Amino acid sequence: KDVESAIAANGTSEAELKEALKEIEQEEAELRKSLTTMSFDKLNYNFGKLQEDTENKVSYTVTNSGNNPLIIEKVDVSCGCTTAKKPEKPIAPGKSDVIEVVFHPKPGQLGEQKKTVTVTANTDPKLVVLNFEAFVEKK
Predict the structure, then answer these.
(1) Cis omega (within 30 of 0) on the bond before 125?
(2) Sign of the dihedral defined by the CA atoms of residues 103, 105, 111, 115, in that order
């Protein structure tokens, strides 16, 4: 067992491993201090009936409900027919900003459509998923 431990630890002593763990725990504690929370005016939106090849917009208002500046790191969309624009500047505690989403169903993209926008920020949990749906009809 000693040999296995030495190999797994890559020759690092137990004291060195404990020190490394302590440093990691300190870094995590510092990171937790910078986290905040966010809330949205809505997590789901239904466009209802739309026509194909049209531009349809929805805005999700995000509020910093924590005590540290909220940094929206990125927004990812689930489909090439959707684009999203995130706030570029940090959002102060108690303040709000908007994530703008544009859904542009392509010609032939008909019927019920359900899409997501994943928001990544300095929050716990790190990700929030926004949803929207529409029923797309032929133009």
Answers:
(1) yes
(2) negative
* pTM exceeds 0.90, yes or no: no
Contacts of 86 (CB under 8 A, 6+ apart): 72, 74, 75, 99, 119
Residue range 64-84, pLDDT digits in tens: 999 999 999 999 999 999 999
Q: How far is CA 3 from CA 7, 9, 10, 11, 53, in A?
A: 6, 10, 10, 10, 65
Residue 3 sits at φ, ψ, to 5 deg, of: -65, -45
The number of beta carbons lying within 10 Å of the beta carbon of residue 23 is: 10
Structure tokens at 64: 């910093």
